[in-house]
Sequence to fold (304 residues):
Amino acid sequence: MRKNEISTGLNLLNIPVDQVGIVERAERFTKRSIKTESKVQGLKLALNMIDLTTLEGKDTPGKVKQMCYKALHPHDYLPGLPTVAAVCVYPSMVKVAKSAVKGSDVKVASVSTAFPSGQAPLQVKLDDTRFAVSEGADEIDMVISRGKFLAGEYNFVFDEIAAIKEACGKARLKVILETGEIGNFDNVRKASDIAIQAGADFIKTSTGKINPAANMPVTLVMLHAIKDHYDKTGIMIGMKPAGGISTAKQALHYLVMVKETLGDAWLSNEWFRFGASRLANDILMQLMKQATGSYQSGDYFSND
Fold:
C-alpha cells in the first residue's frame, strides 16, 4: 500500500472484487418470479424511493414547480399512491423547490461541489454546499474528484468528502462516485469504502450525465461495501443507483437485490433511492395496467 493511501481517518483494506462472481450473481436477481400482489407493492415502494430530478442549464422556477407538483401528485387518477422521496435541483433552485413541497414528506436535495465534473477548488465546493444548505436543502449530492482518485490521491478524496460532510450540517450527504469514469469493480469498491469512511450517509453510482451510469453489477459491489461496513460497525449507509434505470421491471430487480443483499431494513426511502426521473412514468403506467387492465399512452404522463 502506498503512503498516500494511509491517513489518520482512512483505512483501506483493498478488498479485491470477483468480477465474474458479481456479474453472475447480479444476473440471478433478474430471474426472480414476483406475484401480482407483491409486484404492485414493489412498484409503489419503488415510486416512493425516486428522486425526481431536473439538472439543466435551462431550468426555470416554473419547471421546478411543475416537477414538485408531480412529486406530490404522481398520478391524479390513481388514488392512494405514495409521493416520491425527493426532488433534486441545483442550489439556485432549492428555495423554489422547498416552497413547492412545503408541508409534505418530500425532501429537497441539491447537487453541489461543481456538479457534475467536480473540477473546482475545495473552497468553491464548500461555498456551493453551504449555500444549498442555507437555502433549505435537506440532502446534498456531491461528486468526488475522480481525477484525484485515479491518480491514487485517496487521502485527498477522503479529506474532501469529510470537509463537505461537515459543511452539510444536518443535511444528509450522498456521495457520487461516477462509476463510469473510475474504472473497474476494484476501484468501485475502493471508492465506496473511502466515501463511507469519510462520512457519507449514502453512496451513489452516477451523475446521470455520462454513460455507463448505474447497472446492477456495479450497484452490487457498492451494496457489499455497505454490508461489510454494517457488519463491522452496526451503522447503516444508504444506496442510490442513478442514471440508466428507466423501467419498472428494472426497479423491481434492484429491490430484489437490495433485499437479498442487505435485508428488509434497507427497503425504505430512508436507505435506498433511485435517481431516475423517467422511471416514475413507467411505474405509473404499470400501476395503471394493474388497476384498469390496460396501458395508458405515454402522453398521459408529464416528462418532469
Notes: The chain is about 45% helix and 10% strand.
